[in-house]
Amino acid sequence: MHILIAALHRPSKPTGVCRYAVNLAQCLADTDKVTKVSLVIGAWQKSYFEQSFKFSSEKINLISVDIKNTSSSRNLWFLFALPKLAKQLNTDIVHLSFPLPVIRQLFACPVVATIHDLYPYEFPENFGYPNVIFNQIFLKICINNSNGLSCVSKTTYQSLKQYFHNIDNKKITTVIYNEADFSNVSDKNPLNTTNSLINIPFFLAVAQHRKNKNLDIIIKSYHLLKASSQIHESTKLILVGSPGPETENLKQLISALSLEAHVEMLASIDDEELCWLYKNCQMLVIPSTTEGFCLPLAEALSVGAKVVCSDIPIFREIGNSSCTYFQLEGDGIQNLSQAIIDSLAQPTQIVDADNRFSKVQLSKQYINFYSQIKKEIFSPLDKGG
């Protein structure tokens, strides 16, 4: 089976969607059922895909598309050039790594899409107006024109059913978690930090700079703990994530609290550097209002890192009892600060590998999903023939 993964995306630095596409390619390449994986990206993505991600299989073919990185150019490419490329490569399945506007009738093979979240409906502030209107339209087009949908969590699946009623009766849907296992990743100290972090205590946050991530709450809680001497004076705060709508607001907040020497913002780090941060941080802090899956949570737990996170359904689903939870409602800053203190006082626990996020488990689920899609499409033709 030859799978084409469409991962052509606007950002010029790695994002969670990029990491998902790479993990998906690796999972598929690990099974005998898949003979080839074509991972399609934009020319502006090529350098960071090659530098930040390690491709362990010769089955994976990275295809770089040279078009303008503009909304109109990308959307036109999805609509008309992607079907042609899939036909040219003779692919068996086209897998959209995130919702893209496509016309199903133009494809010669089945099309499936991964639904990471329902942010355009649940958290329109992430996109602003009128951008969110287009995001809602493209999400709806993708859902309506895909043969099957794979949700990254049960929480996302429930949200999908909430906004798209009777979706189960209209097309094949399933839940397949993200692959998240850093236990076998070699770690190295990040090179692009201002100062070495070796032997320096630090809190870690890994998230794109978006409203729902609540990175401002982390900064304010860190400032409160530092000002009240409840954490060691040398403790730093490391924010890892690609720039977004909240970047300038976060920089202004850091400046207003005089934390420039204590808070560091990183982007474009590779898996080995991220793994080192997970293993050496005092804790990973995740105060999000909503998430579709939260890959950093699962990755951090896979290497035994402490995690403090907001008490929302998706974190309970992914983290179970392995995390320290706090309430966003009420005084979220004080609640997070207390959760951090409580977590620091707890001994680090050894967490067993979670098979829900293993390559072996997920590759089987993807193959079953694809087989179900192909059977659904071609069976009526076989019966009629």
Q: How does this model look, in words?
A:
The protein has 385 residues and is an alpha/beta fold. It has 14 helices and 13 strands. Helix 8 links the parallel strand 8 and strand 9. The model is unreliable at 381-385 (pLDDT under 50).
CATH topological fold name of the largest domain: Rossmann fold
Distance between the termini: 24 Å
| CATH homology superfamily name of the largest domain | Glycogen Phosphorylase B
CATH class label of the largest domain = Alpha Beta
User: Please, how many helices?
Assistant: 14
Unreliable segments (pLDDT under 50, ≥5 consecutive)? 381-385
Beta-strand segment tally: 13
Assembly level: single chain
Spatially, the strands of the biggest sheet line up as: 3-2-1-4-5-6-7
Radius of gyration: 21 Å
Question: How can the largest sheet be summarized?
Answer: 7 strands, parallel
* Mean model confidence by pLDDT: 91
In total, the number of domains comes to 2
CATH architectural arrangement of the largest domain? 3-Layer(aba) Sandwich
The residue fraction in helices comes out at 40-55%
Run of helices and strands: EHEHEHEEHHEHHEEHEHEHEHEHEHH
SSE topology sketch:
Blueprint: E1 2-6, H1 16-29, E2 36-42, H2 46-52, E3 60-65, H3 71-89, E4 93-96, E5 111-115, H4 119-122, H5 131-145, E6 148-151, H6 154-163, H7 167-170, E7 172-175, E8 202-206, H8 215-227, E9 236-240, H9 247-256, E10 263-266, H10 271-280, E11 283-286, H11 295-302, E12 307-310, H12 313-319, E13 324-326, H13 332-345, H14 359-384
